[in-house]
Amino acid sequence: MTPDQYCQEKAAQSGSSFYYAFLFLPPERRRAITALYAFCREVDDVVDECTESSVARMKLAWWRTQVDALFKGHAEHPVMKALAPHIQPYGLQERQLYAVIEGMEMDLDHDRYADWAALRKYCWHAAGVVGEMSAAIFGPSTPDTLAYARHLGIAFQLTNIIRDVGDDARRGRIYLPQEDLARFGVTTTEIMQGMYTDRYTELMKFETERAREHYRAAMRALPNAERRAQRPGLMMAAIYATLLDEIERDRWHVLDQRISLTPIRKFWLAWRTWVSGGRGVVKRLAK
């Protein structure tokens, strides 16, 4: 199995919405973004699969050595070998890959976030910086494009957090800021026990609007001239924003179930965004 094949299997097995966007890219850019996604999956799996935090820390420390090796020109792991040819052409930076690992380390250090500032920092490490690197792979990027990518990554991460409130609570994690819970009178115990209340609904409305603020900021930051090049990100935006709509339509019943879109619906949203040049999703999400 070649390094590229390894990354392709890693991406396909994940079932992520990101995979649908990759299908429409030219071969070289598709290989680059698939390798980047595989790296993100590898380090994320460390935290998800290791029951002992000490073991997870050791594995993440090992991945730091792999990033170092990559930028010194002697990549070892298949993912890093697949990523190596794309570092220079797309301007990917060592600090950006380290930032992704730091986001995973934050999951080992924190199972609560005091306020939005703390959670926003986590969201940038977990997804915002990935958005920056992805935008650079999709096409030439300006400061406005990078701002678009950061906002979009944070919007995606917030959508994931809203979707996974119940799953995360069962693992002892509550990502929703503690200051927000206090503001709406929702207790940690209520979240842990899966209690639906009017206070919970108001809290989730607030968090959903925060995510939509970042979708709006992303769409408004994206220059029209770069919209076609950034269509893969817009395809993901169409999928994630539709998922957020579905969660709201179901009144945020995410404490005891996982709400998701079918694969065919994801593909349809991706295809429609691609053929329209992203015009529809930009218009819809910028409102």
Describe this structure in words.
With 287 residues, this protein is mostly helical. Helices cover 72% and strands 0% of the residues. The chain contains 15 helices and no strands. The chain has helices at residues 3-14, 17-22, 27-49, 53-71, 78-83, 94-109, 116-138, 143-163, 165-170, 178-184, 188-192, 198-221, 231-249, 263-275, 279-285. It is globular and about 55 Å long. The mean pLDDT is 93.
Structure described in brief:
By secondary structure, the protein is mainly α.
Q: What descriptive keywords fit this protein?
A:
287 residues; mainly alpha; 15 helices
Largest sheet: none
Order of secondary-structure elements: HHHHHHHHHHHHHHH
**What is the CA-based Rg, rounded?**
19 Å
- Specify the structural class: mainly alpha
What's the helix count?
15
Q: Which segments are poorly predicted (pLDDT under 50) over 5 or more consecutive residues?
A: none
| Helix proportion range | over 70%
N- to C-terminal distance: 46 Å
The overall pLDDT, averaged over residues, is 93
The counted number of beta strands is 0
Strand content: under 5%
> Based on CA inertia axes, which overall geometry fits?
globular
